[in-house]
């Protein structure tokens, strides 16, 4: 869609090869941004990660108390 918008609708084809390459690079950049946003949405939130680490520390502490 980005390539279509830049190359055809914005008349990037009038710039020749430079316009084609620019439209392609911008389309790839847009795709990379979408992929990065998707990856960030797949990871647990920072709060969830801290809760998980806190639980691991609590369990380790309880285990060390039992061995004393």
Topology overview:
Layout: H1 2-9, H2 17-42, H3 46-67
Helix pairs in contact: 1-2
Write up what this structure looks like.
This protein is 82% helix and 0% strand. The mean pLDDT is 84. It is an all-alpha fold. α1 packs antiparallel against α2 (17-42). The relative contact order is 0.09. The longest helix is centred in the middle third of the chain and has 26 residues, at 17-42. The protein has one domain (2-67).
What keyword list fits this structure?
68 residues
Radius of gyration over C-alpha positions, nearest whole angstrom: 25 Å
Shape: rod-shaped
Tally of individual helices: 3
The largest β sheet comes out as:
none
Q: What proportion of the residues is helical, as a percent range? A: over 70%
Tell me the domain tally.
1
Q: Give helix and strand order, one letter per element, not per position.
A: HHH
| End-to-end distance | 64 Å
Question: Any low-confidence stretches, pLDDT <50, length ≥5?
Answer: none
Mean pLDDT: 84
The total of beta strands comes to 0
Proportion of residues in extended strands: under 5%
| Structural class category | mainly alpha
Q: Concise description?
A:
The chain is an all-alpha fold. The protein is built from three helices and no strands.
């Amino acid at each position: 869609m980005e390539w279509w918008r830049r190359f055809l609708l914005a008349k990037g084809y009038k710039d020749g090869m430079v316009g084609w390459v620019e439209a392609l690079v911008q389309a790839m950049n847009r795709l990379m941004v979408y992929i990065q946003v998707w990856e960030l949405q797949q990871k647990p939130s920072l709060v969830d990660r801290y809760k998980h680490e806190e639980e691991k520390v609590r369990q380790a502490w309880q285990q060390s108390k039992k061995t004393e």
